[in-house]
Every structure is written in C-alpha cells, then in structure tokens.
C-alpha cells in the first residue's frame, strides 16, 4: 500500500522514517537537519559510530525523540545531468531502505523525496523512480511518500496514477 502525504516527515508515527542523508551520516540541511533536530543528540552519536554510508546504500538507527521507532538513513545521488548513473543510484537508495525495513520486521515506512532538494534531482523523474521501486520491492509494507511542498505532492500523485 502506497499513499502520498504532504507535511513534515518528523511528525509521523511510523515504524521508520527515511532520512535523505549524505555519505558522512553526520547531519546537514534539508530533511536531514530537521530529522536530527527532532531526534536529539543520541541520533548523531549513533550515526557517528556507523562511520558513513556510500551513495545508494542505507543504514538503520533508533528514532530517539522521534515518534518513529527507527530512522533509515540513505544517501541519494547528486544530480549531474542524468548520465552519471543517477537513476540507478536513486532506485538503489529506495530499494536498500525497503530491504532494511523488511529485515527488521517493520510494517510501515515513510520516505521523503530523496535527492530532489539540495542534490538537485528533477522531482518528476524522482517521483516515477520512487513509485516504481516501491511497487517492485515494497510488498507487504505500508509506505508513505512524504511531500514537503505541493509540486512534489502532485508529481507523486501522478506517478502513482
Ligand atoms: N519533511 C519532509 N520533507 C522535507 C522536510 C521535512 N521536514 N524538509 C525538507 N524536505 P533535501 P537531498 C524535502 O535537500 O536533495 C542534506 O544537507 C525537501 O523539500 O533534504 O537528498 C543532506 O545532509 C525535498 O523535497 O535532500 C545532504 O547533504 C526533499 O525533502 C543533502 O541535503 C529532499 O531534500 C541531501 O540532499
């Protein structure tokens, strides 16, 4: 089951929210900054022990002060024009997050629009990749696609069809 929801991902009560992190896992701006602020310093401490995450992979931590029990940190690609493997790396970021959720027996997960902010990935193209990948690898999970803005919400709804 996939739904689109517009708002702040840090407010959701789900088994895991996904963080659009960078390779250091040490925090940043955008949704990453919002998640670390809402979770509190314990999250950064745990991330520091993990020691980083390559692009397209994912790592799971506790949720600390969040309502979500876990945070799944994934690193999407920086958009470099589209011929540097960006599509495949974005699909990997979604797929590896879903795999981790299933390995940990989670039932519900919420994704932000990975890579479409600071990393510059075109949001319509990213929405199609998100929906395709979740349809292929998210079976039995309740998935919320979180849009922070209306344009992203519309692209996600369109991709869902
Ligand atoms: N809830 C839901 N979505 C949000 C929120 C929020 N609270 N805040 C922003 N978004 P971005 P990226 C949306 O830039 O492009 C960080 O510095 C935002 O509007 O957060 O993957 C990391 O450390 C956009 O639609 O992530 C990396 O260095 C989407 O989340 C870099 O940014 C993703 O935007 C990652 O860039």
From TrEMBL:
Transmembrane residue ranges: none
Domain Macro: 1-161
Organism the protein comes from: Paracoccus alkanivorans
PROSITE patterns linked: MACRO (PS51154)
Signal peptide interval: none
Name of the protein described by the UniProt record: O-acetyl-ADP-ribose deacetylase
MF terms in GO: O-acetyl-ADP-ribose deacetylase activity
Xref: SMART domains: A1pp
InterPro entries: Macro_dom, Macro_dom-like
